[in-house]
Each structure stands twice: as structure tokens, then as C-alpha cells.
Amino acid sequence: MAEYLGARHFVMVNSGSSANLAIIEALIRPSRSEPHLRPGDGVLVPAIAWPTTVWPVLQLGLRPVFVDIDPETIMIDLDAAGRAVREHGDSVRAIFPIHPLGRAVDPKTLSEFCARHSLVLISDVCEALGSWKRGRHAGLGSLASSFSFYFSHHITTMEGGGVATDDSAFADDLRSIRSHGWSRDRSDASSWSGTSNDINSRFLFASAGYNIRPMEIQAALGIGQIGRIDSYIDRRRVIAARVAEALDSTKLRLLGAETLRDDPRSNSWMLLPVTAPNPHAAQAALRYLESVGVETRPILTGNFTAQPSIRRLLDSDINPREFVQADHVSTHSFMVGCHHHFTDEQTEHLAQSLHKASSAR
Ligand SMILES: Cc1ncc(COP(=O)(O)O)c(C=O)c1O
Q1: 28 phi and psi, to 5 degrees?
Q2: Which residues contact 359 (CB under 8 A, 6 or more apart)?
Q3: At 89, is the pLDDT very low, low, confident or very high (cuts 50, 70, 90)?
Q4: 217 CA distance to ligand 1 centroid (A)?
Q5: Does 153 qualify as catalytic in the annotation?
Q6: Residues 95-135: pLDDT tens digits?
């Protein structure tokens, strides 16, 4: 993975969710350096998010600050993020964008934004393996970026994930954090045992930790697939192109279809986001698709700020309706699958069903 991504280190863990948890743990409780973030610091997160992008922030005592998204790309809206920073002042110390559904957030605009506001940049790339922008893999250039190898993703170890980072000390902390906090898997393990001669070096704990290790067999599955990733993503692009063609001149639209023409490498098509002109047309399309055996789902979770858990866990008067674009996406858009193992017949069924769904009532 490190070689494929062009990262110095890749530390595998047992899921993308654990990768996010390990990143936040390493940021707030590093074993040697000063913490990058301290309890109570604000972290900008998109209003259309996956729960386990947000939960580790909350669970480890930081403060998620939700930001509206761009309804065309589903990415965090950096203008809205700028407004949130101004509103919350310098208590906002980091940004955790998601590279959604296979789309790479532009690394240049992200790093410029972080430099302007003195923010730590960490990236959730769990949905965007194989997506490149300006010759760089999505999320690279962040202090750390997380990946998922869950079943429907670009490569799968059934469950699995990991963290890419160029920071060697951060990578060592991740190796401790994934294994109870012990020092034995670290590149600097000998320097730890040198300082504590009375402690057995196999049971020397450099940091707090979890047990979020993957199994060898999962890594073996992943290694088998990473060499074929380009062919998987090419196939996903063919499926996306066929669907875009089937929806041409209909009421439905494939979000991101323009990347097929303008910047194909910037979209690895984790799933296919489709948008309708109004909620009624979206609901009619969903009913039709499910009736012909095409499974559908909301865009990630829809507007995540509207979830009951958020209202209960964030003791602020957060108003989901303020996230106008996230609400718009929740009511107008949905996703269907896009897997590289779809047969031609399945792809045709998907494309033709979407075409018919566009005129469903
Ligand atoms: C944006 C995002 N982050 C994190 C995750 C969590 O990954 P996992 O299912 O491997 O725990 C997912 C899951 O698909 C995701 O979409």
C-alpha cells in the first residue's frame, strides 16, 4: 500500500473505522512529541459523513464542528469551512475531510486552506482508494490518511483498513496504538528498551492503545488485489460511463459524470451517486429500482447532523436544517452500486433500470 500510494508508511489495522480511531489517538497522545491536538479542540468534519469519521473525534474528547458540503461533489465546502473557523475562533485546530465516493479532494486547495487557518490536516480516504489528483493519491500530503478494505471497497480484506503517513514518529505511534500500546513493533523499539532495563522489552508499553490488529490472512488477501487495482478501477469507470450514457437526456443525473471526460483519475467510483430534480422524482426512482432488484441507499448517511445520536451526544443546539446542501443531497440524491466484478449483463441491467427509473412516477 505504501508503495502504491507513494507514502513513506502504511500501518494496517482491522478496519477503516479503527484507522480513524488510531489517527485521533496518535494526534492527542503521542508517545514522545507534544500533542498535535488537545481535549476540547475543534475538528472540522463534513455534514455528510460516515459515523466513524465523527465518532473517534467525539470519543477522544475533541469537538466535531460540522460543515456543509458541495452538493455536486459531496465534499466538504471549504468556503463554509472558512466561515466555521471564523465563527469558532482558534479553538478549531484540525480538518478531517472525507474524499467521498471515490473522488479526490484537491490537495492544493486543502493544503492552502490549512496553511491559511493553521489547521492540522488529516484525511478520510476510506472511499477513495485509487483516486488521484494533480499526480498525487487522494489524501496524501495530510499528516495521516485512513483507508478501508471493507467488502464493497476497491480492494477488500473482508474487514480491514490502515493509515498512510509520511511521518515516521507518527507511524511508530500507530504501531503501538494498534497493539495495546506496546513498543515491540516500532522501528525505535530498541531505544525504548534501552531506557527501561528492568522492564521486559516484549512487554514494554510506549503509549495507550487498543487491540485493532488485522490478521495475516487479511493482509494476504489485500496483497493479492493491490497489484490489480488499476484494472479494477478501469472497470468501475466503464460501468460509470455506461450509466452516465443511459441517463443522458433523462431527469436523473450521475453526479461526477464530468470527471470521466475532464479528469478520469480523480474518481475511482466507489459507488454511483445519482441525483433527481426534486424529492418526488427521487422517491419514484428509488421505488422503481428496488422493485427491479437494484439496491439503493442514501448518500453515505444523508445529512449526518440530523441523526438522533448527534442530537444526544453533542450538547449544542445544532440545527440540521442549517446544513442546507446536506439536506438537499439527502432529499434529492441516492446511490447505487458500482463494483468491478459486475458482469456486462448486470451493468446493462443497472443502466437500463436507471434509465427507466428516470420516468417512474
Ligand atoms: C468515509 C468512510 N470512513 C470510514 C469508513 C469505515 O470503514 P470500515 O467499514 O472499514 O470500518 C467508511 C466505510 O465505508 C467510510 O465510508
Answers
A1: -95, -25
A2: 250, 251
A3: confident
A4: 20
A5: yes
A6: 999 999 999 999 999 999 999 999 999 999 999 999 999 99
